[in-house]
Amino acid sequence: MPGITNEEVYEVILKNLSSTNERNSIIYWDKNLLQKGDTVNIGKKIISMPFKGYMIFVDLEPKVNWGHPCLYFLMNSRTNELKVIKEEFPPYFEEYPESFKVIRRYGKKPPHDRYFEIFNEIE
């Protein structure tokens, strides 16, 4: 899906989150379009992308140290079909790639898409 927006990705993910999870989580989207067979960091594992698409990471408990429950959504760029993977660790432990963006923080739009500070609440 060329030109997919943060809002469109968010709407697809929202259908798979409870309202409590949405309000308490931070949702990240790696905007790097992955090809089928590309490697994807899923916590401490590396898997093969099952289709052409995107990786969305949902930290369900951002204010808690790792490991704790989190979700990975692999989204097919053509059909928006999702593969959901439960994990306990983030995709990156060091620097986040430039393609890694925040699309929601505690149920709200962030002031900018690289707003990784987990303890600052958005008014």
What features would you describe in this structure?
The chain starts with 5 loop residues before the first helix and ends in an 18-residue tail after the last strand. 23% of the residues are buried. It is mainly beta. 12% of the residues lie in helices and 35% in strands. It has one domain. It is built from 2 helices and 7 strands, in the order H-H-E-E-E-E-E-E-E.
Low-confidence stretches: none
Helix percent band: 10-25%
Proportion of residues in extended strands: 25-35%
The overall number of domains is 1
Shape designation: globular
Mean pLDDT over all positions: 91
Distance between the termini: 33 Å
Number of helices: 2
**How many strands?**
7
Give the oligomeric state of the chains in this entry, treating copies of one chain as homo and distinct chains as hetero. Answer: single chain
| Main sheet specs | 5 strands, antiparallel
Spatial ordering of strands, largest sheet: 6-5-4-1-7
- Which structural category do the helix and sheet elements fall into? mainly beta
The radius of gyration computed from the alpha-carbon positions, rounded to a whole number of angstroms, is 13 Å
**SSE arrangement, N to C:** HHEEEEEEE
Write the layout of secondary structure elements.
Layout: H1 6-14, H2 19-24, E1 26-34, E2 39-42, E3 45-48, E4 53-59, E5 70-76, E6 82-87, E7 100-105
Antiparallel strand pairs: 1-4, 1-7, 2-3, 4-5, 5-6
Briefly, what is this?
The protein is mainly beta.
Features:
two-stranded antiparallel sheet; mainly beta; 123 residues; 2 helices
